[in-house]
Amino acid sequence: MKDRLISLIDQALDTLRDNGTLTLPEDVRRPVQIDRTKDSSHGDFATNIALMLAKPAGMKPRDLAQALVAALPEDPVVARAEIAGPGFINFFQSAEWLNRQLDAALADPHLAVPRPGTAQTVVIDYSSPNLAKEMHVGHLRSTIIGDAVVRTLEFLGHKVVPQNHVGDWGTQFGMLLAYLEEQKDRESDGELSRELANLEHFYRAAKKRFDDSDEFADRARALVVKLQSGDEYCLKLWREFNQVSLSHCFAVYRRLGVKLGPDDVHGESAYNDDLARVVADLDAAGLLTESQGAQCVFLDEFKNKEGQPLPVIVRKADGGYLYATTDLAAVRYRAGALGGDRLLYFVDQRQALHFQQIFSVARKAGFVGAQVSMEHMGFGTMNGPDGRPFKTRDGGTVKLVDLLDEAEQRAYDLVSGKNPGLDDDALRGIARAVGIGAVKYADLSKNRGSDYIFNFDQMLSFEGNTAPYLLYAYTRVASVFRKAGLDMNETRGDFRLDHEAEQALAARLVQFGEVTLQVAEKGTPHLLCAYLYDLAGLFSAFYEHCPILAVDDEAIKASRLKLAALTAKTLHRGLTLLGLTPLERM
Ligand code: ARG
User: Fold this and answer.
1) pLDDT of res. 136
2) Confidence at residue 171, expressed as pLDDT on a 0 to 100 scale
3) Does the structure show a pLDDT above 90 at 471?
4) CATH number for the domain running over 2-93
5) What is the tens place of the pLDDT at every residue in 540-566?
6) Interval 92-96 mean pLDDT
7) 165 lines ligand 1 (CB under 6 A)
8) 73/92 Cα distance (integer angstroms)
9) 341 exposed, middle or buried (CB, 10 Å; 0-12, 13-18, 19+)?
10) Within the chain, which residue ranges are assigned CATH 1.10.730.10?
11) What CATH architecture does domain 400-577 belong to?
């Protein structure tokens, strides 16, 4: 639609130029921009082209707008164009065009959202916990937001390659392996697995041993060296440990309904063999400087407060490699071997500088071609009700499983209160969808860049932009069909949208594709949340003003059923893209 309007305006501009109304200096470009209006009572689309060109053309904006509207070719898509304010042109789409779009969406499981001309390969780094410890709430955000963007990109027809860049390498593994070895000597297998069931405790116990005993600390250091030199025994211990830790992650993914599996794990250790080459290639590109024995890349664009250039250290004086070295290897692998057109990183905002540096070095070194985009999709911190980083009462990290357990239990209490008649299995199922959905939606509905406060009461409320509200909105639309014994896949007749509430709902429904495109482009699922929330509100207004089943006129009834069906399908699709589970009843 936007493209169509742009072409109409371009034609009008040509007409005005040809008949001498409009004279523009040679160097003035005239790219027409079309935007959606906020409020469809003022039209569906608007352009500021008359405001942009008035000055160079030496005309009053409103006069130019007037001339443009008069010169606009007839088109079945546009019902009329109006001038607003200082010289905006507002377009009202024709009912015929709207109806045609609605019918197309209703007839297509894909809701008539167009596939991209060329599908891209999008490599997405998300979740990426450190295996030395239990996954924490920071990884929750990455996992949930990343998953929603993965689903959206796939829906749009792109190829997604998930990369779970787990932290499975580094000095802390020496300490963990030394402790694992000790425990193995002492405990039977059963007790050891119990010990490992709580990685947080395991880590803390190992750390305590490390701090308390020099002998242990020496053993830990020696184990790292052996591990890094590829010692079979150490590797075996290390694999064993990682397997346990990863199984904890997979349990969380399963609970969350997130699509990450073993095949998506490509951790830091995967790049070990490549690190020396990365440093050598940086050297060959003339980017390396030695500073106090360490190998560094200095880039002019990164300076500290005193104006001194900041180094990206890629090899320490003792020969060890760093987080940055691994990420340089990873970025090259993703653009090269994986053939990524876009490389996305859903990682805490606090790592923004790290990624800017990596992207910049990678480009300069030629690791990533100019046509590949690298995008850090940073996110803020999840805070507790006190506005400080989320912690347990005793100040420890909150285990994700505990958090999800509590969410489900609270949801259970909530839904069992509302459905005294339902059997327990059904209630548990609903509680899972609502509880887990609430945690996910609370995260997804906020602009990812900002911090947010984790609040069970708020996220489980049936009012406002929450999962329970939206899940309920879907069941309500679905129940229209259930009550009438009708199948929402078998609607018929033509759209006849006479009531304002019908028109407003319809105009919003046809925007689904645009919204998903924005989510995919900017990595911002909150736009989809806001859209669905809006849709649910528009449906409520429609439902209130326009009786569906009780209306006498059969043609109007059929049209309203079609509108309800498309609302249900759009809500269902949208919720699924966000990784929520729509319910038929709740
Ligand atoms: N493991 C890191 C952490 O927990 C996140 C890794 C993000 N991905 C990356 N390629 N650096 O902070």
Assistant:
1) 82
2) 83
3) yes
4) 3.30.1360.70
5) 999 999 999 999 999 999 999 999 999
6) 93
7) yes
8) 14
9) middle
10) 400-577
11) Orthogonal Bundle (1.10)
